[in-house]
């Protein structure tokens, strides 16, 4: 097969040429400069006004305590409550993170598969769950000790804000290379409030939610439950999900508080339409090959809870202690052909997973002095444990397909990590801030095969260990302008799914213990400015990664992974938020990233298997070189009216390591308009959302390295949603 890189295009989904992106980026920079100058002129003429002193957000993910982003040598963005909830369906994280540079969160239009999440290209290759990116909900990890993450427990109805950390300092959270996504549940309001929300949309999409919260003396609480259902855009893509989330906080004596967080998600019925080949895109609504024959589907349930204890022990000394636990059960029916299932070593076309997990994180912060200037030190330890049962069954009985057949796989797996971390923040002068840290990570993964043949060792295990430093410096050149530079070394272990097979024929059995963790060197420089009307961030980064994980072979439902020698990522990110006056505000986010192979290697991703070289300069799959978001919102002081117009652009993305197939780039426009009313004790809102105004048809996401070239997951075109809310307080 030729290794020529195609420029895939179609009349409905044009490839965005480099010249077009040059124009787009130039317009972005010029528009930002014009915006900045107009705001400065407006401020000069208007003089001091009541309102916020700075648009720079207060964040906690970067340093584990609340600080202004302007003071920190990190790339971090905050998505606030209005962006998460107003005029949104509130079912997928992709709705909220469009305006975050460096982060790609795409909706597959397939609820049997997770969103395609990556940060600076890390995680883009993942075909199951989220990897390369750490996930947290109210401080409780959604990422397991092996690095595999799930975000199904994220509840957007009750989310107060989302923080997205990118770059070197994500290493302080352990087994992740790309970044950290943290969701924080809102506090209950003063008094008490009860509210409901309803969403209706295309394909019989419906979502209903109830929320209650309040404050009673030292007790604050927020409880939310939601039901979601859809018939889906494509054939065989119906889904049903139920969510529950709660946060209860009690203020105690002696400057202490305890917070209980509990959430659950249940998806009893989710169909899997599978991916489409290039030829099948003539009818993007159809199901993939085998989806109907084998009734591909998934069901899952997850429950977890955590307790967080915080106390100020004495002047400047703070204690944080968290413990959590949970259970997750998943069953997935795949379209593995019966002929493949007949092979004696086939693991089966039905995967049945059970997870019992838990852990703790404890750290202490102390405010000290060094040479008469402020110094803050934080030291902590974390432990996470995962016990997994993994069963595999044939997906047929006789001539009946898509039903649970004979047992082919019976394993007990375990993964746990023990980490220690230390970080310090020193202000040697009013203009300088130094931030540094160190994290030592120990990860152990083991597997016991109950069906191992006589004479074959049933237990295989692997041990990984790393000590990763990070450091950064911020220089406050002006009161509202900061320059910074940072470096960090990242660490990413193979997940249990990566380790599952040593070969596509299942021999020898056991974990692929030859896999090594990936190590990356992350360099970043940036500029930040923020005042009452403008927040502007410009970041440049370079990442060199050794032993990154990639597919070695794909066949018969098995993926065998390998370490590849070296990859490089270099790029730039621009983010700008402006208050324009007369009720107008805007948001711009642009990302340029060149993620490519730095040393060649061989892969076999097709059926039949033929080793083919991946050349130096080949692009990493599912990572667009350019992406742009622009939003303009009008919110006049009266009428309770708001309206937002959005434009979203993305360059083409490659579907496999060989760069032999690609999804074309696209432009998209969205519009939402809403009204809000406050009537005595009631608050009401009505929003109408129109996505893909021009009704363009394109493939937003890909199934990377799919062995039968069923890569493509099409977008539904123009869709309209109606959202209604009512809250009594």
Task: Supply database-style keywords.
single chain, 729 residues, mainly beta, five-stranded mixed sheet, 3 helices, 39 strands
Question: How would you characterize this protein structure?
Answer:
The chain is mainly beta and 729 residues long. Helices cover 5% and strands 55% of the residues. The strands form eight sheets. It has a 22-stranded antiparallel β-barrel. The chain has a five-stranded mixed β-sheet with strand order 3-8-9-6-7. Strand 35 and strand 36 form a beta hairpin.
Can you describe this structure in just a few lines?
The protein is mostly beta strands. Helices cover 5% and strands 55% of the residues. It has a 22-stranded antiparallel barrel. Strands 3-8-9-6-7 form a five-stranded mixed β-sheet.
Secondary structure elements and their pairing?
Elements (H helix, E strand, L loop, with lengths): L17 H29 L11 E2 L7 E2 L6 E6 H5 L17 E4 L9 E4 L13 E5 L2 E2 L17 E8 L12 E7 L6 E10 L3 E12 L2 E12 L8 E14 L3 E16 L25 E18 L2 E17 L4 H4 L8 E21 L2 E21 L2 E2 L2 E2 L5 E20 L5 E18 L9 E20 L2 E12 L25 E13 L3 E22 L2 E24 L2 E14 L3 E3 L8 E3 L11 E9 L6 E10 L2 E2 L7 E2 L2 E14 L2 E10 L7 E4 L9 E3 L4 E10 L1
């Amino acid at each position: 097969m030729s290794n020529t890189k195609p420029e895939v295009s179609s009349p409905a989904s044009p490839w965005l040429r480099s010249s077009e992106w040059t124009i787009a980026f130039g317009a972005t920079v010029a528009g930002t400069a014009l915006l900045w100058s107009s705001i400065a002129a407006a401020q000069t003429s208007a003089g001091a006004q009541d309102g916020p002193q700075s648009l720079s957000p207060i964040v906690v993910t970067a340093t584990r305590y609340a600080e202004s982003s302007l003071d920190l040598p990190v790339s971090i963005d905050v998505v606030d409550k209005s962006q998460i909830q107003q005029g949104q369906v509130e079912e997928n994280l992709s709705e909220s993170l469009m305006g975050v540079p460096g982060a790609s969160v795409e909706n597959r239009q397939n609820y049997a598969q997770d969103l395609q999440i990556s940060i600076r290209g890390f995680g883009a290759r993942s075909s199951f769950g989220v990897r390369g990116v750490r996930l947290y909900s109210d401080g409780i990890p959604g990422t397991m000790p092996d690095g595999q993450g799930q975000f199904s427990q994220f509840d957007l109805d009750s989310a107060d804000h989302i923080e997205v950390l990118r770059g070197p300092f994500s290493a302080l959270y352990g087994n992740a290379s790309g970044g950290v996504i943290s969701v924080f549940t809102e506090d209950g309001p003063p008094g008490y409030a009860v509210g409901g929300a309803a969403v209706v949309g295309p394909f019989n999409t419906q979502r209903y939610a109830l929320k209650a919260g309040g404050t009673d003396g030292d007790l604050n609480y927020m409880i939310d439950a939601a039901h979601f259902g859809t018939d889906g855009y494509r054939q065989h893509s119906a889904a049903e999900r139920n969510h529950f989330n709660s946060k209860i906080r009690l203020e105690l004596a002696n400057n202490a508080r305890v917070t209980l967080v509990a959430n659950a998600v249940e998806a009893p019925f989710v169909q899997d339409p599978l991916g489409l080949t290039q030829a099948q895109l003539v009818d993007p609504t159809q199901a993939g090959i085998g989806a109907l024959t084998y009734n591909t589907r998934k069901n899952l349930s997850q429950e977890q809870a955590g307790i967080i204890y915080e106390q100020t022990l004495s002047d400047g000394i703070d204690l944080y202690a968290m413990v959590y636990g949970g259970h997750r059960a998943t069953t997935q029916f795949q379209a593995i052909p019966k002929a493949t299932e007949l092979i004696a070593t086939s693991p089966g076309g039905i995967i049945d997973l059970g997870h019992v997990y838990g852990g703790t994180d404890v750290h202490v912060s102390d405010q000290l002095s060094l040479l008469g200037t402020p110094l803050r030190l934080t030291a902590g330890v974390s432990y996470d444990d995962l016990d997994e049962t993994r069963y595999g069954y044939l997906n047929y009985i006789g001539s009946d397909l898509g039903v649970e057949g004979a047992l082919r796989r019976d394993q007990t797996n375990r993964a746990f990590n023990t980490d220690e971390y230390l970080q310090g923040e020193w202000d040697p002068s009013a203009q300088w801030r130094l931030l540094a840290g160190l994290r030592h990570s120990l990860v152990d993964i083991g597997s016991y095969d109950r069906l191992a043949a006589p004479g074959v060792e049933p237990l295989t295990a692997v041990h990984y260990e790393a000590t990763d430093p990070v450091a950064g410096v911020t220089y406050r050149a002006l009161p509202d302008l900061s320059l910074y530079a940072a470096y960090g070394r990242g660490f990413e272990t193979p997940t249990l799914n990566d380790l599952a097979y040593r070969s596509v024929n299942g021999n020898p059995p056991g974990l692929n213990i030859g896999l090594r963790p990936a190590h990356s060197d992350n360099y970043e420089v940036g500029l930040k400015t923020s005042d009452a009307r403008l927040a502007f961030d410009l970041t440049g980064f370079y990442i060199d990664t050794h032993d990154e994980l990639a597919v070695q072979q794909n066949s018969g439902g098995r993926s065998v992974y390998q370490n590849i020698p070296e990859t490089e990522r270099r790029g730039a990110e621009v983010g700008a938020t402006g208050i324009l006056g007369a009720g107008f505000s805007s948001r711009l986010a642009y990302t340029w990233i060149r993620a490519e192979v730095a040393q060649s290697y061989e892969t076999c991703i097709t059926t039949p298997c033929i080793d083919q070289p991946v050349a130096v300069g080949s692009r990493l799959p599912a990572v667009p070189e350019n992406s742009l978001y622009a939003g303009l919102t009008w919110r006049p002081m009266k009428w309770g009216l708001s309206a937002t117009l959005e434009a979203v652009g993305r360059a083409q993305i490659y579907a496999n390591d060989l760069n032999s197939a690609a999804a074309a780039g696209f432009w998209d426009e969205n519009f939402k308009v809403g009204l809000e009313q406050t009537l005595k004790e009631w608050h009401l809102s009505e929003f109408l959302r129109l996505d893909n105004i021009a009704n363009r048809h394109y493939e937003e996401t890909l199934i990377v390295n799919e062995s039968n070239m069923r890569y493509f997951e099409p977008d539904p075109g123009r869709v309209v949603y109606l959202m209604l809310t009512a809250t009594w307080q």
